[in-house]
Amino acid sequence: MVDERTIAWYDNAAAEYEELVRTGSASDRLQEFMALLPKGASVLDLGCGPAIASVHMRAAGFRPDPVDASQGLIDLANQAHDISARYLTFDDLDMVAAYDGVWANFSLLHAPRADLPRHLAAIATALRDRGVFHIGMKVGTGEERDRIDRKYTYVTIPELHGLLEGAGFDVIAVEEGEERGSAGTVDPFVIMRARKRG
């Protein structure tokens, strides 16, 4: 279920958000993810935002499929990068064995907690056997809005690990840290890379 207030913020602040996340080269996290993929891999960029990761993946010879629920971010991505970004919500995920990798970098944190098992199962279904999944989430408990009205679901590290295992993944890497986001607060996060069993 899409939270309309969260999407409205991204639609209205697309250019501002793009400036915050723009990078001149692929981040270490993205490079580590790409290193696990086969040559020419097909990758779902789930919650792609301004599609910066997809631009770097395309430049590295991969075939990204950037999708987002914010039309404002999709339009910005396509105008700036001609990247074929398209509208798709987490609820729309119905692909079967279509991708070698899924990159969900701090996007699923906007999904309701009750929906996370269903979304992770859909991601596993969309991946080919042994496909690679990257997920970034904020660490904590509960659900709440930040000061700019975006809705967040927080997870503990054991909780996320368990959710991935339950969806058919083996966790292969964990990174913890803190980062300042658009709301100006410094929040703890966890990134996990996982491989679909098969």
Short descriptors:
alpha/beta; Rossmann fold; two-stranded antiparallel ribbon; 7 helices; globular
Span of the ends, CA to CA: 29 Å
- CATH homologous superfamily, by name? Vaccinia Virus protein VP39
How big a fraction of the residues is strand?
25-35%
Poorly predicted ranges: none
The count of helical stretches stands at 7
Helical coverage, percent range? 25-40%
What value does the Rg take, in angstroms?
15 Å
Could you report the average pLDDT, rounded to the nearest whole number? Answer: 94
- The CATH topology turns out to be Rossmann fold
How would you write the strand order of the largest sheet? 3-2-1-4-5-9-8
For the biggest sheet, the summary is: 7 strands, mixed
Number of domains: 1
Write down the secondary-structure element order. HHHEHEHEEHEEEHEE
Description:
The chain is built from 7 helices and 9 strands; from the N terminus they run αααβαβαββαβββαββ. With about 200 residues, it is an alpha/beta fold. It has one domain: Rossmann fold. A 7-stranded mixed β-sheet has the order 3-2-1-4-5-9-8, with helices on both faces. The chain is globular and about 40 Å long.
